Amino acid sequence: MSRGSYRPRKPRGRSRVGERFEAEVGPVAHGGHCVARLPEPESRVVFVRHAIPGERVVVEITEGTDGDRFWRGDAVSVLSRSPDRVEAPCAYAGPGKCGGCDFQHVAVPAQRDLKTAVVREQLVRLGRLDASSPLVAGLRVEAVPVPGRPDDGLRWRTRQRYAVLPDGRPAMRAHRSHELVAIDDCLIAAEGARPVDADGPAGPDEVVARGLVQHDVTAAGRTHAFTVAADGFWQVHPEAPRVLVEAVLDVLAPQPGERALDLYSGVGLFARFVGEVTGARVVAVEGDRGACQHARTNLSALESAVVECGPTDRVLRDGFDEPFDLVVLDPPREGAKRAVVEQVVDRRPRAVAYVACDPAALGRDVAIFAEHGYELTAVRAFDLFPMTSHVEVVALLSKGSLNRPRFSAAPLRGAALG
Ligand SMILES: C[S@@+](CC[C@H](N)C(=O)[O-])C[C@H]1O[C@@H](n2cnc3c(N)ncnc32)[C@H](O)[C@@H]1O
């Protein structure tokens, strides 16, 4: 995972980096660390990596000065260990080593418990939902095993981005650092995973031809082919397209004749499956020109599909002013934000399926939807990034009585309804 955007802050006061403290590890927090509080005289919150809630550890400070409100640190020795602690399967995981994974030291089912806690916390703190509501309390991050593999959290990444050392060896970055750590093998990369930006062996569901990749996705009983640029966006877990399409169809319950908007559509994954069911107008909006071109090809079998290329907020503001029954919203990590959310609710959709790769951004956007009467009415979360703190969430936002499809009495299936 690239840490290319990391920029160290200007130091404020005496550095505490390298100092060690004993600490009780508190709850997990968004970002792959746990929260510990150092008593006086330090009186500091420390975000501790390589720890598990409930443990007593020695924390070595990795970032922090006297002037900082909180510090960051690594658990460099464990004084009382959690029953969920395991030996990291990867030799490159641990304090000061590769920063690609956050939870190699945690048993895989317990990793999902940590992510569940994080998603719930973001929905409560930022999304302003009630922690005791069945939607929040009933949420569990679901396992998504790779077919034919044990559920061990390894060998799932179909693409892996490596840095290259001057001597040509592949490397990954240390956590929040530009420092490169040489690695022979990344255990979360699928066998034969194709390094991005390089020709190489294709994964099992891929055909590579002149910089293009074709993915066949079978979901909800239908199979569609998607052409993607070899370096373009495509979900990296081999089961992700199927699982996310099925979750989106499940919560939206699209009906024949319903008009759909697929925002941040990439190469048209959701538009293709939703449009197949509705048989009506589908507008895919995507900012990347290459992805737009591929979306046009991938959606060409749908007579009423249109691809609008440009930033979502601008396309929605200037492009077309018409109502839509269904919206799929799959923004990048920063979320959709107010301008887009308000453009979406202006179209008065019956149902919005929000596919989120950052539960904090989801929480912030859920709060904006709520200002406009759109409530979170179903939510599921999937462990599509084992060993890391990342998690994918599919949420349904709908407005009271608008929640029912116009064309049939088909109930929403699967997800918990609030
Ligand atoms: C998380 S990906 C989702 C892609 C697609 N829904 C899929 O599942 O394959 C987010 C997509 O949003 C696009 N994107 C990012 N910022 C955008 C913006 N401001 N306006 C339109 N598209 C944007 C990216 O190019 C990327 O294709």
Automatic annotation (TrEMBL):
What UniProt keywords apply to this chain's record, in alphabetical order? Methyltransferase, S-adenosyl-L-methionine, Transferase
Active site per the UniProt annotation: 357 (nucleophile)
Q: What is this protein called?
A: TRAM domain-containing protein
Q: Which InterPro entries match?
A: MeTrfase_TrmA_CS (IPR030391), NA-bd_OB-fold (IPR012340), SAM-dependent_MTases_sf (IPR029063), TRAM_dom (IPR002792), U5_MeTrfase_fam (IPR010280)
Q: Name one Pfam family in it.
A: TRAM
Name the source's superkingdom.
Bacteria
Q: Give the family from UniProt.
A: Belongs to the class I-like SAM-binding methyltransferase superfamily. RNA M5U methyltransferase family.
Which residues bind S-adenosyl-L-methionine per the record?
235, 264, 286, 330
Query: Domain TRAM spans what residues?
Result: 14-77
